[in-house]
Amino acid sequence: MSVLSAVLDAARSGAVEVVDLTTPLQSSTPILELPPPFANTSRFRLEELSRYDDRGPAWYWNDIHTGEHTGTHLDAPVHWVSGKDGLDVSQAPLSTLVAPAVVIDMTAEVEKDADFLLQIDHVTAWEAEHGPLPDGGWLLYRTGWSSRGEDAVAFANADENGPHTPGVAPECARWLAQESPITGFGTETVGTDAGAAHGFDPPFACHNHLMGANKWGLTSLRNLDALPPTGAMIIVSPLPIVGGSGSPARVLALVER
Ligand code: MN
Prior knowledge:
The chain has about 260 residues and is of the alpha/beta class. The chain has one domain: Glucose Oxidase, domain 1 (3-Layer(bba) Sandwich). The chain has helices at about 5-15, 95, 105-110, 120-130, 150-155, 170-180, 205-210, and strands at about 15-20, 45-55, 55-65, 75, 100-105, 115-120, 140, 160, 160-165, 165-170, 185, 215-220, 230-240, 245-255. Helix 6 runs parallel beside helix 7. The two termini are about 20 Å apart. The chain binds manganese (II) ion. The site of manganese (II) ion has 6 residues, from strand 4. Manganese (II) ion binds near residues 219 and 246.
């Protein structure tokens, strides 16, 4: 039997489960909201062109309006100034889009502290238990934050000091970017950085270091609780927007049961 036939048989039998890690795209999908004077991205919006009516009697279709960084989406290296000479989203290597994924679970820590930051020690402790991070693969950061995904206020979790959402300590971001073998880093939150990362050194350290190392980000992931710590494969499908800094993406995981 061919390898692909075996995979398809396994998917039909349930021996391999396909898990959807994607947030549905709709006008209520949470987006990052920057304070003035910074420009903000558009919410996702459907603009109806016809629906079996005078504008098109037999067909329904829409224009879509969206930012590149809306819902579950891929950040390309060129998204950040540190990666400005790097790849755009249409140039994502296929070996990055179909790749192994491992999951580090910090849900319990984040329940106690919404501003929790992943440290190098957390990752090295994970490696001591599960083995090295996958060369050319993804580290997915499970925080439980996606349980807030249908409540924009709870998802942003902001007060007068700004948003309080989990992220990555600057030194850990530098280490993941420059010393680990991963190709990308994925989160459940609206961006890869902590809510407080505007005040980090460097600001938005995860973006700064990852993009500067020609690596990739994934955000607003769901269903990470359905993935094992190791052994999953993810399929990331951004739109191939030429020159784009990112794109909404359908992200699927294959998991052996
Ligand atoms: Mn983004």
